[in-house]
Recover the amino acids of this structure.
């Protein structure tokens, strides 16, 4: 009752003001929505610069780790990779630090790349504080699946399998609690090229991710390649007329669906990158958790073109960027 | 050594020892040991959020044990440009003002979220967005009108029962006094509830609940001591003193009420409810009756009645101004609890007055019925307000 009374006072207050208005008094600003805003309404985006993300998003975009190459006695190409699990704090938005679990000190982990039929050997050492694994997507033996052979802190494990099928794949920790181990940053892209090389193109990788900085099982920060708004603040330069090939990996936790939307253009979709002919031609591509695709597009006109999740919320919470299409790259 | 010096030294010994131990904790890294490597927890509280065209302004208080850094600001789940003054790092018990240029929408709800450097979020919801009134003649006109309608006019109407009361027999006067006590108890509980609720929004370090205790008990004891001489005398003078005390108690209560109304109106928490004004006036008119009940058997000049009315109702206007201009949960809690203390003191004074007039036999069907009637009147008229 006491509560109701005070609530009612609040409610009645506006009526009183109404009476005041009748009496000749007018509360200033009661007609706020003027057609000429008196201030700059601001823009969506972060304030400041990220300096300690563990990766340079622009370098990461075009960096592919092909491993240390050798030949097996049977003349199979062997690609050896060194992966360490390391606890590290990373800056995911200007001034916002997240206590991540990383592969090789970076989120996403290095983009591993092999050709179909290569023998992939991953020497994994857990330098972190929790048990971890590496679970590769692909076709391999059960004991190489990175699920049951949990690698404790200080322990090592060697994953070995033949890279197949070709496509855009993913690796991530499969320790329990699974959601926690992925959300903390233990994931990366794993690209397997077809035996016959694809047409020449400028190649990029974007791992779509997010960060639950206050641990309430919802993401506060969204991004392509960890750093919110990185490609908005510094657009990605694209040469006019050049074929662009973008490997997309969605590892977003907590939100069921993510997407890629390209402005002023359409792109060819190679679902999971497992075909040589495109499956679709669109400008908006929906991606479930763990889903990957390869897309290809060419810009015919110079200018600034936005790309972002078409979940507007994700866009304004960091997952947006720009392609700056120019005549020639300096 | 002379004994006074010795006494002082003995008295200061534990204090010196405490200072020494505090220095040990601060200088030896004992703090880090006790913290066990766990990162410090940041706590930011929204104190006041105001709106101007295309602009949101949020005043933050750090009520936690550690400094906190404002890293990013979100409005309605979107990172947004902002500036923070004087600095993004807010020290313990420090304050910061965040200015966000944002095209907010009139009449809609908006959520502001501050993201700290450690990734924690602190949010505030603007229930109904409306431009915060600016200081000026229109502001004073509107907020004075609010105060007049909610506080002064109902009390003044209630005072008009004074001539009627003079026709009553003594036992019915006691009934009226008990009725006054009943409605005061009702108001006191209401204010206490509101004070404790507001205390929950006070930044942790400022200990809202303790503010309620200190404010209420401090006021009660202060008024007890201050009024003991005037209440000690007999007859007219004491009855008038009681009337003034009631007016003061109701006035302090109304100050808190005005504060809440002004804040709610200017901070966009108020929504429309046209006919509530009528119910509200009925509800508060009983306050005027309570003020004149003790002096029913005396003569009272018009100026005296005006003074009583202004003392009880006027603070609503002042409260509305203050609430509209500079609302803060801390001050609101303090004002509300001061009102609680003042009301408690008046109830004691009423009890003592009736006790002396009845030689200690306070509880008759008239007095008990009066208290109950006071509570029921407030409850019944409250139903109108709560609609």
């Amino acid at each position: 009752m006491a509560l109701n009374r005070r609530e009612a006072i609040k409610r009645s207050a506006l009526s009183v003001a109404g009476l005041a208005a009748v009496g000749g008094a007018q509360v200033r600003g009661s007609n706020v929505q003027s057609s000429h805003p008196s201030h700059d309404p601001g823009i969506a985006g972060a304030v400041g610069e990220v300096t300690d993300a563990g990766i340079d998003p622009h370098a990461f975009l075009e960096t592919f780790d092909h491993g240390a190459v050798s030949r097996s006695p049977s003349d199979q190409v062997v690609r050896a990779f060194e992966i360490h699990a390391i606890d590290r704090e990373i800056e995911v938005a200007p001034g916002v630090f997240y206590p991540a679990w990383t592969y090789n000190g970076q989120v996403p982990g290095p983009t591993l790349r092999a050709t179909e039929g290569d023998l992939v050997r991953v020497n994994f050492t857990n330098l972190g504080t929790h048990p971890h694994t590496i679970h590769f997507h692909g076709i391999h033996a059960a004991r190489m699946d990175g699920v049951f052979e949990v690698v404790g802190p200080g322990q090592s494990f060697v994953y070995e399998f033949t890279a197949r099928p070709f496509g855009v794949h993913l690796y991530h920790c499969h320790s329990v609690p699974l959601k926690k181990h992925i959300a903390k940053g233990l994931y990366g892209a794993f690209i397997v090229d077809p035996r016959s090389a694809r047409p020449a193109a400028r190649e990029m990788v974007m791992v779509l991710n997010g960060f639950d900085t206050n641990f309430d099982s919802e993401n506060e920060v969204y991004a392509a390649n960890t750093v919110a708004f990185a490609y908005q603040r510094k657009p990605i330069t694209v040469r006019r007329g050049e074929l662009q090939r973008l490997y997309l990996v969605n590892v977003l936790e907590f939100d069921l669906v993510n997407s890629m939307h390209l402005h002023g253009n359409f792109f060819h979709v190679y679902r999971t990158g497992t075909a040589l002919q495109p499956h679709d031609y669109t400008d908006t591509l929906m991606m479930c958790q763990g889903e990957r695709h390869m897309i290809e597009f060419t810009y015919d006109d110079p200018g600034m073109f936005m790309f972002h999740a078409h979940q507007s919320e994700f866009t304004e919470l960091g997952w947006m960027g720009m392609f700056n299409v120019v005549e020639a790259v300096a | 050594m002379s004994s006074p010096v010795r006494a002082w030294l003995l008295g200061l010994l534990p204090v010196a020892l405490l200072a020494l131990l505090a220095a040990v904790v601060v200088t030896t890294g004992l703090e880090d040991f006790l913290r066990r490597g766990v990162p410090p927890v940041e706590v930011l509280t929204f104190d006041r959020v105001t709106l101007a065209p295309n602009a949101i302004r949020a005043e933050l208080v750090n009520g936690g044990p550690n400094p906190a850094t404002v890293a990013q600001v979100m409005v309605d789940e979107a990172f947004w440009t902002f500036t923070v003054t004087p600095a993004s790092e807010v020290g313990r018990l420090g304050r910061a003002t965040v200015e966000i240029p944002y095209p907010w929408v009139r009449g809609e709800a908006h959520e502001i979220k501050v993201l700290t450097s450690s990734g924690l979020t602190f949010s505030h919801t603007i229930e109904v967005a409306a431009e915060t009134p600016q200081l000026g003649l229109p502001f004073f006109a509107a907020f004075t009108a609010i105060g007049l309608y909610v506080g002064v006019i109902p009390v003044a109407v209630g005072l008009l029962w004074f001539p009627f009361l003079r026709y009553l027999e003594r036992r019915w006067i006691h009934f009226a006094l008990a009725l006054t006590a009943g409605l005061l108890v009702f108001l006191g509980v209401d204010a206490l509830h509101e004070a404790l609720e507001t205390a929950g929004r006070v930044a942790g370090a400022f200990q809202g609940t303790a503010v309620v205790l200190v404010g209420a008990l401090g006021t009660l004891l202060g008024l007890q001591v201050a009024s003991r001489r005037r209440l000690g005398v007999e007859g007219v003078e004491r009855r008038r003193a009681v009337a003034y005390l009631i007016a003061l108690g109701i006035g302090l209560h109304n100050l808190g009420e005005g504060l809440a109304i002004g804040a709610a109106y200017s901070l966009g928490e108020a929504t429309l409810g046209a006919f509530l004004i009528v119910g509200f006036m009925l509800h508060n008119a009983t306050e005027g009756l309570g003020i004149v009940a003790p002096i029913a058997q005396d003569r009272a000049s018009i100026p005296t009645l005006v003074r009583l009315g202004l003392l009880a109702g006027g603070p609503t206007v002042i409260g509305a101004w203050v609430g509209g201009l500079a609302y803060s949960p801390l001050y609101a809690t303090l004002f509300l609890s001061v009102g609680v203390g003042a009301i408690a003191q008046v109830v004691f004074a009423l009890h003592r007055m009736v006790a002396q007039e009845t030689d200690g036999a306070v509880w008759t069907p008239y007095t008990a019925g009066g208290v109950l009637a006071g509570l029921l009147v407030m409850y019944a008229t409250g139903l109108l307000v709560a609609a």
In short: The radius of gyration of chain B is 26 Å.
